[in-house]
Amino acid sequence: MGKTYQVRLEPVGIEFEVDEDETVLRGAFRQGLMLMHGCKEGQCAACKSFLLDGEVDLDKYSNFALNDFEKEEGWTLLCRAHAQSDLEVELINYDEEVLRSGVALQTQQMRVDTIEALTPDIYRLVLSGPELPFKPGQYVDIKIPGSDEVRSFSMANLPGGELEFMIKVYPEGKFSSLLSGGRLKEGDEV
């Protein structure tokens, strides 16, 4: 863990702590704040916000999401921004009720209960383990076995008990190809 900094979100006045080793978006998620986002990779601009005060270091991102002129003006992408000082950020796209309704990030080991082909390219995946609270429309990041990479999938069931997913398989998909290729099996842990 690196240094920690305070982030203040305006115009809502919410403050939270972020570590310099994590993005502002991830720090918010860790503390149960649901900031607007899309790709989490600096491609879509859904998390674009205006930096009122402070310094950030940005991970690689698309010029489509944030061009040089916007960056010079003070715009930033929260999914790519690492705090280098305390920050004051003006949110452009937000819903205060949604912002405050998040569930703090958790990391859990889950067991693969079911892998079922529903069509040639759609698989049903069921995971069991500790009950994870979630709201309809939320998603989890599943770590790709043998890698530090993750893929995000929305739950296809209601909260309470197992996690169920409907996953489209792509031939080169880093996670989805594990389902169709038989490399991920019932009983494995993720």
Strand order of the largest sheet: 2-1-7-3-5
The helix-and-strand class reads: mainly beta
Give the ordered list of helices and strands.
Answer: EEHEEHEEEHEEEEEH
Tell me, what's the shape?
Answer: elongated
Kindly provide the name of the CATH class of the largest domain.
Alpha Beta
CATH architecture call of the largest domain: Roll
CATH superfamily of the largest domain: Beta-grasp domain
For the record, the count of structural domains works out to 2
Helix share, percent: 10-25%
CATH topology value of the largest domain: Ubiquitin-like (UB roll)
Instruction: Point out poorly predicted stretches.
Output: none
Question: Distance N terminus to C terminus?
Answer: 24 Å
Cα-atom radius of gyration: 18 Å
Task: Looking at this protein, list some descriptive labels.
34% strand; 12 strands; Elongation Factor Tu (Ef-tu), domain 3; 190 residues; 5-stranded mixed sheet; single chain; 4 helices
What does this structure look like?
12% of the residues lie in helices and 34% in strands. The protein has 190 residues and is mainly β. It has two domains: 4-99, Roll (Ubiquitin-like (UB roll)); 111-180, Elongation Factor Tu (Ef-tu), domain 3 (Beta Barrel), CATH 2.40.30. The chain has a five-stranded mixed beta sheet with strand order 2-1-7-3-5. A hairpin with a 6-residue loop joins β10 (139-143) and β11. The model has no long low-confidence stretch (mean pLDDT 94).
What topology does this entry show?
Layout (H helix, E strand, L loop, with lengths): L3 E7 L3 E6 L4 H7 L17 E6 L2 E3 L9 H6 L1 E3 L3 E3 L3 E4 L5 H4 L11 E9 L2 E7 L10 E5 L6 E5 L8 E6 L7 H5 L10
Parallel strand pairs: 1-7
Antiparallel strand pairs: 1-2, 3-5, 3-7, 4-6, 8-9, 9-12, 10-11
